[in-house]
Amino acid sequence: MRRERALLRSVFQRALLLAAASGAACAESCSSAGGGEQDAGARDANGVDATSSTDGGGAGDAADASDGYAWPPGCVPSPPAVYDAAADAPNCAFRTRLPCGIPPFVTSIDPVGCVLPLQSCVQLCTGIASPFLSCEVANGFGCDLEAGAFVAADGAPVVIECDKCTIAGRRPAALRRAVVRGRNIVACYLAHLAHLEAASVPAFEQLAIGLEGLGAPEELVRAAQRSARDEARHAREVTRLARDHGMEPPGVRIGANRRRSAADLARENAVEGCVRETFGALLAAWQANHARDRAFARTIRRIAADEARHAALAWSIAAWLEPRLDAASRRAVRCAKQRAVGGLTRTWSHSPANELASWAGLPSAAGAAALIGHLDASLWKT
Asked: Of 194, 112, 196, 101, which is closest to residue 141 (Cα–Cα)?
């Protein structure tokens, strides 16, 4: 794995330099409450200001406007339901139906992708509430992605897509969704992060068992087992931070796990390791250099070093496993990886709330695009 670790180290260093040079260190330093310069007065079909407002704004006007909002009879959103439980997006994407259209507390909709402000997502995706969340009007259910426009008539039903997997990292198969609720955005972020760190433990345990069953080199099996121990330590460290902020992370629940073939394991490794965990390692390195909170910065710096090693393991597994697949399976792995990169790009197409971005050192949409773009050019497209 030395070659993969050296390659990732070089790619990460270059990506961090390019993203820093873009002047997009975090949402607070480079985005306004309006989310960028747009034509004033742009309106959507509901009369809602269509000016992009994608930084979430912390506990801003959208949160205040929706506090105590009484849904009219027949207009209560449906409970969010999983609509994409494919292997490359396990239990991350949910849809909720708004029978009476967009409520008045939603102050803006970005025409490009029909993205809603982060704080509006917190209110609308009620069954999976978490301040670290993205949502958008579903294509064909109130949004026309080809036209780049919100097209629902005033009061017409729309469907909102909610994505709760905005924190990258390796997830186990059949991971059940967890609810994180609270008004403190930093505490909720830490609880969500702790939950996913804890979920990575069984993910690596499953990986080690799968590799052993396929007769993988002992070095890869041992590295997966060590990674599980690393993730257990990460979960303990982040859980302490979450509790310091008054939040208890939800427990990890995993459904029945079927026996996976070599093709299944390769596809999962490509999505969870080569894409999500690789980006997660780079993101943690970025946060270590930009987080305002010193305790979190120290913790995430230690985590970043481990995650870089875990990402290198994913690429080592890919180098050993993928050549052993038939042509159709290798093509399926490539397609799954491309979809994962597309989902990552969409998730980070808007900036996190300013308060959270500053505290945790998260990049703005522009900064994340620079990080993702460099990984795509250097690793994912090669």
From this structure: 101
| Number of other CB atoms surrounding residue 119 within 10 Å | 28
Pairing of strands 149-150, 143-144: antiparallel
Q: Could you read off the pLDDT of 50-102 as tens digits, one per residue?
A: 333 323 333 333 333 445 688 899 998 887 776 654 444 445 567 889 999 99
**Three-class SS state of 321:** helix
Question: Using CA atoms, how far apart are residues 366 and 371, in angstroms rounded to an integer?
Answer: 9
> Residue 192: which of 184, 55, 202 has the closest Cα?
184
Identity of the amino acid at 37: E
**Residue 354 corresponds to which tokens in the numbers above?**
């300013």
CA angle 7, 197, 13 (to 5 degrees): 25
Residues near 259 by beta carbon (within 8 Å), at least 6 away in sequence: none
Beta strands in 167-319 (DSSP E): none
The answer regarding whether domain 2-24+169-176+183-347+364-380 maps to CATH 2.30.30 reads: no
**Which whole-number Å values give the CA distances from 251 to 23, 175, 185, 235, 291, in the listed order?**
38, 11, 19, 11, 26
Where are the domains positioned within the chain?
2-24+169-176+183-347+364-380, 35-166
pLDDT tier, 22 (very low <50, low <70, confident <90, very high otherwise): low
Task: State how far the alpha carbon of 111 is from the alpha carbons of 30, 53, 107, 151, 157, in Å.
Answer: 21, 11, 13, 10, 18
